[in-house]
Structure formats: structure tokens, C-alpha cells
Design brief:
nine-stranded antiparallel sheet, elongated
Length: about 675
């Protein structure tokens, strides 16, 4: 948020404008995304990336780009560009400025003409791009050429004989279904005519995919172009949709949507706006572009995306949808129904934590147990007696989990069939979540006077807490082991021990809590979140770059994850109190600089472990945004509850500086 608008020098530098992205998403699951230069650099970029009725939970790139060319005084100027082999695209000197606040908007100057291009997507995924001629006197012609892909977002397409290039001509545009089974794509304009000129554009390159070790070239089909005369002061709108649009009224519709889009100013306002991009009609999209519905991510993200933002109905709806998928006490890690996989030892425990957050917000303890008690009890019973993937409670009350070749915790990267961070056995975070889950369920069952549940579980917290400390704590080291398996303790310094302090119910004594937070703060804290491994560890790998194998080797071996910051704030406030507020405020406020570093106005998945902590991974991640919102909510709530103490401290500080409250 350093810049509200990027001007010509930055926009004409492709090292800047082709490495920053914009994202516009709809509740239907559709999105429009590219770099702010207008050039697609990823296979996931596209003007219309849409859900389709195929099996699975993927999106499909239908309309890849809309190549725009202006002709003035018989001189044609391309405002678009693509990467081709051995070709470095020239800087677009006509590009004056770009802003994504609140919607993507490009300003161009062509000779004496000034043109503004704006992009909107409505709730059902209809794309609208408006071109407005602000300044000019000469006749101007606008040519818009759609380039179609009609392919899964993870794949690439090439010229082939199976493509149905037939054009369904409409009064104000065309409809096309490049391959059978897809929705028909309607492309229409509010003025102008369509000229058929079918052509395959070959070997378009995506540099980001090349860097990530994937195929990076594809062919795109163009059925022709829209030919438009644009008078001074007038606008024309291109609409792309899965439904035919009524174009005479499209200008008013665009203006109405534009005026209902708030312009965020503060960091919190940007986060609130970004939060809406992950809430879909059927759940939460874990991240853009390649993450879809994930159980663990959903319930880590859900409180921040719904409870903090006041969307209580969404919390209830999404929770109910996922609960219906529980099998043997486990939540799907990915997928739903026939595509569901249950390889997550912590997702059900995060579900319980999420309901716990809901209970704290609503204080509806009896209702919580009445609505969720049966499912909560069934999860605890499944863990107690044993379920899939050798997830089970041992005699000491702690949970062990894992079989060869699986990664069941959030540190789940697997390469060459082996987990990069093998955490088979008793993982510290799983057991912190387990202790918290048992204590919470006892609390709500007591409110509901469910004596049968209370009687059967009331002895467990004391046993679990005693075993937890004996198993994970080391008095000499003064921190917690990350995982214990066959009596072998892994003393890698990781943030997983954080949850033994941050969760509402902690199995640790206060002195142990303070020691754990001190270790985390000294070894793992950065301005962008917590490292996944201490820099002093020989396995520390802080840079997330290269092909899939190289990236997986560093994914949880030193990279920084911002989603951990809300739990870090909870742990630090619990152990140190108001004295840490300046530090936590500074960390939170620092994320305003992230808003224009990678994908504009949102927060990415991870950062490099070392300075300058370059943004990496998914360009927009649900739990990154959600937990920063929750962090802000925690800090605001703490300040409110401790207002008198903080005011007294503030008054003393002013007196030291020989100031009075009235002077300030």
C-alpha cells in the first residue's frame, strides 16, 4: 500500500509491471487475473477462469486474453503483448498509469488521445471491460481480439483438429463452445461488429511456469475480432459470460457495480476486501491459483474470514457442509464426496478450534453442544480408539499418527514418495490441538449439563497435560520437541510448539509458556511471520524457488508463513501482556507494504526465510488474510479490555516527556 496508483516509469518497466499481479474473484468461483502489465505470465492467468460441470474441483481457462489495438490517424498501436520464444516484448510507452483500488484500471495515452480501461466481474462471473475515451478529437478505432483456451487451469492447450471453431453469431457478438462438454462462452460488445478471422496464435510463453519447472508454451485460438468506432467522451463495454447479456443496459449495470465497490484505504479495509475473494458459494478457496477446498485450510481460515467480518451465516453454512463429509472422525484434507482424501491428522481438531472461536464470539455454549455436540464427541472418540492413518490415542493420553510415506500435519510436502518433514509419531501441534479440543468439549458439555460426556472425559485433561510436558518439554533446552517417535525426540526449532501456548487451553505451566515464546521470538520471528525452521539448523533452506522438487525441499524448512502471526500474538499477549503491543502493532502494520509487492491488495502464502523476505508461493492465501484479520481483532480487543492500564501507562510516558494529555 505504498502506492495507490503506479505511474508510467514503473508501468513501462516490465521487471516491475510483469511481476505484479491483480486478482478479481466472484462468489461463483470464477476469477480474472493477470499481471498489471496486462500480459499473462502464468497458465493460471486469464480474463475468464471459470468453474465447469466436469468431475473434480477445478477451474478452467476459457478466455485467456483480449488483445486490444487502437488506430488513430491511420497509425495502429497494440496495447497488449505476449511473451514468445526469443522475444523480449517492448515497453508499452503508451501506458500512463495503473490502479487496482478498488478495481483494475489502466490509463493510456496514444498521440493526443487518453483512453481508460476498467475491469469488473459480477457475482456470477460475468466479465465486463469498459474502454472510455477521455480526451481526443480524431477518429479512433478499437479492435478487440479474444484469445480462447478452453482448458483445465493446470494444463496447456495446442492447435488441434478437435476444436470446434464454429461461431454462433449474435446481434451484438458471438457465442463459442470450443470443445464439447464446456459451457458456451458468450462474447458481446455494447457497440461495434464482429469480424470472423479464425487463427491459432502459437507458442505463447508463460515465464513463471518455466521458472517453476512446468511446461510453459501453448497455442490459443482467436475466432476473429470486434471492430469498434469510439467517439470522444464515449465508452464501449466488452462482456464475457456463460449467459447471453442484454447489452443495451450493460453501461448502467457496469456503473452500478462500480459505485458499489468500496475503495479500501487502511490495511484492515484491504484485508476485509481480500477476504471476500476466498468465500465461495460452496466453501472456501484455500488460495490462488491452484488451491481449492482444503479441510485444514478451511477451518484455520474460517474464523477470520467469517466471524471477524460478521458473516456468521457463512460460518454456519460452511461448517455444516464440511461436517457432512466427516468419515471415521476425520475431515477430508482435499476434495468432497467421491474425490475426498482423509490424510490429515489435524483438520478435525482445527474444526473444533473453529467452533470454539464461534462459541467465544456468540457465547452460545448450550446451543453449541446441542448443534455440534454429537459430532464433536464422535471426533474425540475416533481419536481415542483409533482411526485411519494410525491416528490414535496411546495409554498416556497423547495422540500418535502416521504411516510410511505420508505427511499428516500442515507440514505436508512430499517429494519422491517421502515426506520432506517426516513427523510420524507424537507431533507437538497435534497434541496441543488435542488437549485444547478435549478441554473445550468438556466446557460446553458442562454448560449443556451432559453428564454422560463429562463423566467419561473429565479425567483426561490432567493426564494429557502431564504427559504432554513429560514428552515434549526439556528443562535444559527450555522449549518443546517438535515430534517424538519411538522415544526419539526431534529438537528442531519449529513454530509447531506455538500452539501449546496460543490455543485457549494450554497444557503448559506459565513459566514453560514464557520460555517457548522466547525461543520462537528469538529463532523464528521475522517481519512477515514465523520461519518454519531455525536458521541455526543445518537443514535450514530459506529460499522457495525452482522446480517442484526444489520448492518442496524448502516449503517447511525455513520459509516464512504469515498465517502463524495471530497465534504468535495470542501467545505473546498471554505470556508478556501489554508490553508487547508495540512489537505486534509494528508487525501487523508492516503488511501494508506487502499489498503492492506480489498480487495487489492481498497477502501471499509464504515469504523467503532471509531478508528481504521475498513473497512466494500462492499469490493470495486464505489463511494469510484470515489470520491477519484475526490478529488485528485480537490486538483491538486486548487494547479495549485493558484500556485503563494502557491509558495509565500512556499518561506516565507523557509525563516523562514533560507533556500533558491536553497538549496531545
Amino acid at each position: 500500500m505504498l502506492y495507490d496508483c503506479f505511474h508510467a516509469p514503473l508501468m513501462q518497466d516490465l521487471n516491475f509491471s510483469a511481476t505484479r499481479e491483480y486478482l478479481v474473484a466472484a462468489p461463483s468461483g470464477a476469477w480474472s487475473a493477470s499481471t498489471i502489465s496486462g500480459c499473462n505470465t502464468r497458465k493460471y492467468h486469464g480474463l475468464m477462469v471459470m468453474p465447469q460441470s466436469f468431475p473434480g474441483d477445478d477451474n478452467y481457462v476459457l478466455l485467456s486474453s483480449l488483445d486490444d489495438t487502437f488506430t488513430c490517424n491511420e497509425e495502429s498501436t497494440d496495447l497488449f503483448f505476449h511473451y514468445y520464444a526469443d522475444t523480449c516484448p517492448p515497453a508499452r510507452k503508451q501506458l500512463l498509469a495503473f490502479t487496482a483500488n478498488p478495481l483494475p484500471q489502466w490509463w493510456y495515452q496514444i498521440q493526443d488521445e487518453v483512453i481508460v480501461k476498467e475491469l469488473l466481474m459480477d457475482a456470477d462471473g460475468t466479465l465486463m471491460i469498459r474502454y472510455t475515451r477521455i480526451i481526443g478529437q480524431h477518429p479512433v478505432n478499437l479492435r478487440l481480439r479474444p484469445l480462447l483456451a478452453f482448458r483445465n487451469m493446470h494444463c496447456l492447450t495446442f492447435q488441434n483438429s478437435h476444436a470446434d471453431t464454429a461461431v454462433n453469431e449474435l446481434q451484438d457478438g458471438i457465442g463459442m463452445e470450443l470443445y464439447g462438454g464446456y459451457s458456451e462462452l458468450f462474447m458481446q460488445v455494447s457497440a461495434g461488429s464482429f469480424v470472423q478471422e479464425g487463427y491459432w496464435y502459437k507458442n505463447i510463453e508463460y515465464p513463471s511456469e518455466k521458472q517453476r519447472g512446468y511446461d510453459w508454451k501453448e497455442d490459443l485460438y482467436s475466432p476473429g475480432y470486434f471492430d469498434i468506432s469510439l467517439p470522444p467522451g464515449e465508452s464501449v463495454i466488452f462482456a464475457g459470460s456463460l449467459h447471453q447479456q442484454h447489452m443495451p443496459s450493460i453501461q448502467n449495470r457496469f456503473s452500478q457495480l462500480q459505485h458499489t465497490t468500496d475503495r479500501p484505504i487502511t490495511l484492515k479495509a484491504h484485508l476485509l476486501s481480500a477476504a471476500t475473494q476466498f468465500l465461495r458459494d460452496n466453501g472456501i478457496k484455500a488460495g490462488y491459483y491452484w488451491f481449492n477446498n482444503w479441510g485444514r485450510d478451511t477451518f484455520i481460515s474460517l474464523p477470520g474470514l467469517t466471524l471477524v467480518t460478521g458473516k456468521i451465516a457463512s460460518f454456519i453454512q460452511i461448517t455444516r457442509s464440511w461436517i457432512s463429509q466427516i468419515k471415521d472422525g476425520l475431515l477430508p484434507n482435499t476434495g468432497h464426496d467421491a474425490t475426498a482424501t482423509y490424510n490429515s491428522a489435524d483438520a478435525p481438531l482445527w474444526l473444533i478450534w473453529s467452533i470454539q472461536q464461534y462459541a467465544e464470539k456468540t457465547h452460545s455454549w448450550k446451543e453449541i453442544w446441542r448443534n455440534y455436540g454429537q459430532i464433536l464427541s464422535s471426533i474425540l472418540d475416533a481419536y481415542k480408539h483409533g482411526t485411519q492413518y494410525n491416528i490414535r490415542m496411546e495409554q498416556d493420553g497423547l495422540i500418535t499418527a502416521g504411516i510410511t510415506g505420508t505427511a499428516l500435519t500442515w507440514m505436508d510436502a512430499v517429494t519422491d514418495g517421502e515426506p520432506v518433514t517426516p513427523r510420524t509419531g507424537k507431533a507437538v501441534d497435534i497434541n496441543a490441538l488435542w488437549y485444547n479440543a478435549v478441554c473445550f468439549c468438556l466446557k460446553v458439555s458442562l454448560h449443556a449439563k451432559d453428564s454422560a460426556f463429562t463423566d467419561s472425559w473429565e479425567s483426561y485433561p490432567e493426564m494429557i497435560a502431564k504427559s504432554f510436558s513429560a514428552t515434549f518439554w526439556n528443562e535444559e533446552k527450555r522449549y518443546l520437541a517438535d515430534v517424538v517417535h519411538n522415544d526419539i525426540k526431534d529438537w528442531s526449532v519449529r513454530p509447531n510448539q506455538l500452539f501449546a501456548v496460543s490455543l485457549p487451553f494450554s497444557p503448559l505451566a506459565p513459566a514453560q509458556q514464557r520460555a517457548v515464546m522466547s525461543k520462537i521470538k528469538s529463532d523464528l520471528l521475522t517481519p512477515r511471520g514465523l520461519r518454519t525452521l531455525s536458521p541455526s539448523d543445518p537443514a535450514y533452506n530459506p529460499t522457495y524457488q525452482g522446480d517442484q522438487h526444489a520448492r518442496d525441499r524448502s516449503y517447511h524448512q525455513g520459509t516464512v508463513w504469515p498465517w502463524l502471526l495471530a497465534h504468535f500474538a495470542e501467545g505473546l499477549l498471554r505470556t508478556e501482556g501489554p508490553v508487547v503491543l508495540p512489537l505486534l502493532d509494528k508487525i501487523y502494520d508492516g503488511f501494508k507494504y506487502v499489498l503492492d509487492e506480489y498480487c495487489l491488495n492481498t497477502i501471499p502464502e509464504i515469504f523467503d526465510g532471509d531478508f528481504p523476505h521475498t513473497a512466494r508461493g500462492a499469490v493470495a492465501q486464505a489463511w494469510s488474510v484470515a489470520e491477519l484479520l484475526r490478529m488485528e481483532d485480537l490486538l483491538a480487543g486486548f487494547k479495549f479490555r485493558n484500556a485503563a492500564t494502557l491509558f495509565s501507562h500512556h499518561e506516565e510516558t507523557l509525563q516523562i516527556w514533560n507533556l500533558s494529555l491536553t497538549d496531545t
